[in-house]
Write a structure and sequence with these properties.
Helix content is about 50%, strand content about 10%. The protein contains 15 helices and 8 strands. The chain has a 4-stranded parallel sheet with strand order 2-1-3-4. Bound molecules: iron/sulfur cluster. Iron/sulfur cluster binds next to helix 5 and helix 13.
Length: about 375
């Protein structure tokens, strides 16, 4: 995986380090020049390195049960310093519940364990397509409070001009990210299976940095030159629903490649392309994460993605860890299949716990999807 980037430091003084949930508005710590790490990205990276079993085990020994999300378990073990490769110990925590409510309990446990302040943004569940003015005002007030709290803790001063600057940079990175994702519009896509996920940590904690935009632009250029190379047999284009099974990543990629299947769109990567004009726009963008919106809106977003990237089949990962996401998946599967008239097949696994993934089951389900896709073509 690409190395996790940091928010750009600004000004002098000691370095303040925070841990941040994936979809917390990075623009806030970035404008204050605070360094942030994302424990979910750290847990995913640890899983890719084959460390997740040991971390989950360590968390269980600390009293965190197996039924908890594996990111939560690994995050608690990382906070307790159970691995040398984890992020540095934080001075503060930034959390919001725009992807799951379990995140709040996790960060509260982190704050207790580490005895450090926790800054929360509460995103209420919204049925409407667009957040209401009162919801935007509720979040604006909370952001003001978080900024005040961070100023008090760190002694840094909030500069509205600096905030605008980091927002502009975040938007430029999001544009470059879109260019990278759009490489998959080509047929065959020049993006390798799961390749895009390698760059997600950059977008999570680095999208307010110029270097991220430059790195993504260079990647988009590289993909474009890969795309024009002639040859290669046609591939089956699929949508990947859910988080990858990080501990089994090589096995999954190998099976997808061998069966001539290409992931051309997914649920996670587009959700990091926040685009907006001003603070209210930023709030609306962070309210609109694909796994944090209503079922109807989530279906619309998936349908748009599948149509845009000309998807021929959908592979759904029932991620044992992520109950909030998986609860609506059966209805999502049924409705997507009917709306798009493409086969939808699911498998069971986990983003971090290797014991919850079966390569045999994955291969069998993938074969089924391929057969169904071939029958339709
Ligand atoms: S339950 Fe799902 S959304 Fe929540 S922390 Fe775990 S993986 Fe993330």
């Amino acid at each position: 995986m690409a190395r996790e980037a940091r928010a750009q430091p600004a000004g002098s003084g000691r370095e303040w380090v925070g841990w941040m949930s994936t979809k917390f508005p990075l623009e806030i710590p970035a404008a204050l020049g605070l360094t942030v790490f994302c424990p979910e990205s750290a847990a995913a990276a640890a899983s890719c390195r084959g460390e997740s079993s040991a971390l989950c085990q360590a968390a269980e020994e600390m009293g965190y049960c197996r039924d908890l999300c594996s990111y939560v378990r690994m995050g608690m073990a990382l906070a307790a310093g159970q691995t040398a490769g984890g992020p540095p110990r934080p001075d503060f925590l930034l959390c919001c519940n725009n992807i799951c409510s379990g995140m709040l309990q996790w960060y509260r446990a982190l704050a207790r364990t580490l005895d450090i302040p926790l800054f929360l943004l509460d995103f209420p569940y919204q049925e409407d397509r667009e957040p209401s003015p009162s919801l935007v005002a509720y979040l604006r007030a909370q952001i003001t409070e978080v900024v005040r709290g961070l100023e008090e803790l760190t002694g840094r001063r909030w500069d509205p001009l600096r905030f605008q600057e980091v927002c502009r940079q975040a938007n430029r990175s999001a544009q470059a990210w879109q260019r990278v994702m759009d490489a998959a519009l080509a047929s065959p896509s020049p993006l390798g299976n799961m390749e895009l996920f390698d760059y997600m940590p950059l977008m999570v904690t680095g999208r307010c940095a110029k270097e991220t935009e430059q790195q993504l632009e260079a990647l988009a250029g590289k993909l474009q030159s890969r795309a024009v190379r002639p040859g290669g047999s046609p591939k089956r284009r699929i949508f990947w629903e859910g988080t990858p099974c990080w501990p089994a990543l090589d096995r999954v990629v190998d099976l997808l490649d061998r069966k001539n299947v290409q992931i051309v769109a997914d649920t996670l990567t587009p959700s990091l392309g926040f685009r907006y004009e001003d603070l209210d726009g930023l709030i609306r963008a962070y309210c609109g994460t694909i796994n944090g919106v209503s079922l109807e809106r989530g279906l619309e977003m998936r349908t748009e993605l599948c149509r845009r990237y000309r998807v021929e089949g959908i592979l759904v990962h029932y991620n044992r860890s992520c109950r909030p996401w998986c609860g609506a998946l059966q209805e999502t599967e049924r409705r997507l299949g009917r709306e798009l008239e493409v086969p939808v097949v699911s498998f069971h696994g986990d983003q971090g716990d290797p014991e919850a993934f079966s390569a045999a089951q994955f291969e069998l389900r993938l074969d089924t999807l391929c057969e169904l896709m071939d029958q339709k073509s």
